[in-house]
């Protein structure tokens, strides 16, 4: 079979294919490569890919032709490589592609160049983005933008596993907006939603990056805090209570004051996550019984206000 047969065979592929020699000069450029890049074979063949004509970059914008070129690495060590990169299209835009590189050898087995096969990755990226969007939607409370009950359950499972594996304790804190029914009855559900969103934002902005605030349901929130001591949980929870009490919602000519009751507990060795949740929930009940706008943490005999 002659070279023309193999050329026609490669031109029939839907994947882009091109060859380079050891000087990184492009020696072959198939029809799919023309379609995906906008460059014809006449514009590419004979040019050096080191001239950065295709300008492959990674997700962080690093130009791979200058640093970390898969083709160059493959010609160096003979290993096959795969990568998700972005190619510069002739018309100026970036095209996400999935590339695979392999060495080209002569009859003696000596590397004489490399071949890159690349596929349009746009649809795959769209699917990934859609899945991420759906995942976020499924795990996010739409009113507040923080995690929902399902996300709280997932986080609890993760903290529980970490506790069992490494013995690192975690804290569970419940927060319940005080007199929320009265707010709804007097000002309406729209204002009630504003109050819930305001409290959620307050909780989220105070916490550390690894701490998680979720809407447990209605006007109740749960805060999950990894790697914290009992005394630390008392300090954090009191700070949350104080900042909520210093917040408000403006509606028409009125300023609506908001407070919340808090109850928390620290995980114990061998204790199931839901047992920690139950203990924290009992502490929340004690805060409500004590007059609201206060903190009760399991192991503490006093509340703070």
TrEMBL record:
Record PROSITE patterns: GGDEF, PAS
SUPFAM superfamilies on file: Nucleotide cyclase (SSF55073), PYP-like sensor domain (PAS domain) (SSF55785)
InterPro entries given in the database record: Diguanylate_Cyclase, GGDEF_dom, Nucleotide_cyclase, PAS, PAS-like_dom_sf, Rev_trsase/Diguanyl_cyclase
Transmembrane segments: none
Ranges for domain GGDEF: 168-300
Enzyme Commission numbers on file: 2.7.7.65
Catalytic reaction annotation: 2 GTP = 3',3'-c-di-GMP + 2 diphosphate
This protein's name: diguanylate cyclase
Organism field: Pseudodesulfovibrio cashew
